[in-house]
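Q: My labmate handed me this sequence with no annotations at all. I'd like to see what the chain might look like in three dimensions before we decide whether it's worth expressing. Could you predict it?
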Amino acid sequence: MTIKRFAPHALLATCAVGLSIAAAPPSTASGGLAFTVTSSAFAQGGTIPTVHECTSGDSDPRKKNESPPLAWSGAPAGAQSYALVMRDLDNRNLIHWVIYDIPVGATALPQNVQHVYRPPVPAGSRQVYYRGSASLYGYQGPCSPSTVNTYEFVVHALNRATLSELTSASSTQTAARTITNASLGSARITGES
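A: Here is what I predict for the chain of 193 residues:
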């Protein structure tokens, strides 16, 4: 058996190369940066501000049930539209928001997307009706008064410009399955509330 000895500087150079490769950001199929989503309202894993919490059964004037601003970049090549699914990971993955048919040219959702089936911004998008502690189209904010729960926002890059099989009567579960089936890739951010 032969044991090879490496000079210390060669070993350090090998380690440095390994570190630079490990530190490089993952790339998408298009060769760009990784598909990511961020919010100016909270950092990854941070606290979701009170203004984004639900107003169901609570008279706290700071709670407005406004959707948080979200922005994304690095979507996979071939994306034709975007969709977002928000879930409460600590409450059986309860879906709190589905918005889809977001035009491919969009790279963000503003704060407080209107609670209607077809919000004016982003133009062309549609939202699913939330049936739960509130009954409304679109965003239903965190509603966990006695616990701190983790909420996940996932932006999907879709292989189709429109999910025409979904309607104003589609359930959140049906919409989420349809989105997953059309997804080319996704990016996520979580927050606590």
